[in-house]
Write a structure and sequence with these properties.
Layout lengths: L12 H14 L1 H6 L2 E5 L4 E6 L15 H23 L5 H6 L5 E9 L7 E11 L3 E10 L4 E10 L2
Antiparallel strand pairs: 1-2, 2-4, 3-6, 4-5, 5-6
Length: about 160
């Protein structure tokens, strides 16, 4: 199979499709919470969660559970790392870069809940602050449909 390089700063459609399949379909928890990729660039990834009954906390009938917020931000941090790794290794075919996803793991995660997660849909953003040879550091945001910042996160991921 011949690999055609994408223009600088852009991912090939096969890389994006492969990452979406892994992220949205093969990671069971992402599928359960309905986490979808909206955009993926080397410098930032964006996702969305629509309010569903499974996302609501036990005692708060219309609020997204803090565990869903945390898991969503963790997943987006990992996706941002994958985008950064994908951009760093554009000389490799998409399938080879996608294989690197299997080696990614969270080693530290901090979430600050600023406001209750009340709403019908939410946007999640993540960016890589530093991509080293073994560890990547990320910053994540969880926003309401109105753009209001509800939670922020910071994560560290092993990328060996």
């Amino acid at each position: 199979m011949t690999h055609t390089a994408a223009p600088a700063g852009e991912f090939e459609p096969e890389f994006i499709a492969g990452l979406k399949t892994i992220f949205e379909e093969k990671i069971a928890f992402n599928r359960v919470i309905g986490l979808k990729i909206i955009s993926m660039r080397p410098e930032q990834v964006t996702g969305r969660i629509e309010m569903r009954h499974e996302l609501v906390g036990h005692y708060a009938h219309n609020r997204v559970h803090g565990g869903v917020i945390s898991a969503g931000l963790d997943a987006m941090g990992g996706l941002a790392v994958m985008a950064a790794i994908g951009a760093r290794h554009m000389d490799e075919p998409p399938a080879q870069r996608l294989h690197r996803f299997a080696k990614l793991g969270t080693i530290d995660l901090r979430i600050d809940y600023l406001r209750p997660g009340i709403g019908e849909r939410f946007e999640l953003r993540a960016e890589v602050l530093r991509l080293g040879s073994r560890v990547a550091s990320t910053r994540m945001e969880f926003l309401g449909a109105d753009g209001r910042l509800l939670s922020v996160g910071a994560g560290a991921y092993i990328v060996s």
